Each structure stands twice: as C-alpha cells, then as structure tokens.
From TrEMBL:
Keywords: Molybdenum. It holds the Pfam family TOBE. The keyword Nucleus does not apply. Residues 2-68, 74-140 form the Mop domain. PANTHER family: DNA-BINDING TRANSCRIPTIONAL DUAL REGULATOR MODE, TRANSCRIPTIONAL REGULATOR MODE. This is Molybdenum-pterin binding protein. It comes from Sulfurospirillum diekertiae. It comes from the Bacteria. GO terms for biological process: molybdate ion transport.
Length: 141
C-alpha cells in the first residue's frame, strides 16, 4: 500500500502506557530517535502492539511545526525532534522543509513562505520539528 503522508518512520515499540481509553506508544527508531503517539487502547489491541513489535509512525508534513530556539522544549507537544535543515523547496504560498537528525531520521514539514521568512530558515539551520502525539498514526504488520 502507498500513502500520501511524507513522514513514514519505522521502529520498534519501546514503551506502552495503557489507559482506559487512550494509550501512549513510544516507538524507537534504529538510530535511537523516539516518536510518541497517542492512540486508542482498542487500536493497541487490534494492532497487536507489544514492546518490541515493529511499528510504522505516519504523520503529514502539515502536522509539523518548526521552531529555531530551545523554546521548543517548553511546549506541550510530546514530539520535539531536533535536527538540521537539509533542504528547502520554495513555493508560491508554502514551502517544504526537510530536516535530518544526527541519528539519520528525516522529517518533512510544510510551512508558509511567510513563516520561513519570519524564522529566517536556511539550509544548515538547527531546528526543532514539533508534532503532537495525537497527530501520529501507528501501523503494524
């Protein structure tokens, strides 16, 4: 199956915190980066997720916020991924920003051209990709 979401990250379930309705899933990538998702407890059961299970984390580029300063650490979103801008594709209204972490994780964000200018984003900049855990879909085989 192919899907349109640009961010498709594989890893292994490192932790599951079950609640009566929702569960928090922590997926560790091969390089050691972690992605946190909040899904229903029913989804955890139907996917057969357990610690050590292979998992696929999926999120749209439009769900990614970018921040340049360490202020990113003071937000409520569970996913704050620090990386370096490796590519910027400009558009008429929006631009695509690709960042990579030292461990090799790649995250793509779509931000407005105005936001890019306000942040003075450029290739080589250190940035945080911020993604709410509720925006991360989890898949399993």
């Amino acid at each position: 199956m192919k899907i349109s979401a640009r961010n498709q990250i594989t890893g292994k379930v490192a932790e599951i915190k079950n609640g009566p309705v929702n569960s928090e899933i922590v997926v560790a990538t091969q390089g050691g980066d972690k992605i946190v998702s909040v899904i229903t407890h029913g989804a955890v059961e139907s996917l057969g997720l357990k610690v050590g299970s292979e998992a696929l984390c999926i999120f749209k580029a439009q769900s990614v916020l970018l921040a340049k300063a360490d202020i990113a650490l003071a937000v409520s979103a569970r996913n704050k991924i620090k990386g370096t801008v490796t590519e910027i594709k400009d558009g008429a209204v929006n631009c695509e920003v690709v960042l990579s972490t030292p461990a090799g994780l790649t995250v793509t964000a779509i931000v407005t051209e105005d936001a890019k200018k306000e942040l003075s984003l450029a290739k080589g900049d250190s940035v945080y990709a911020i993604i709410k855990a509720s925006s991360i879909l989890v898949g399993a085989n």
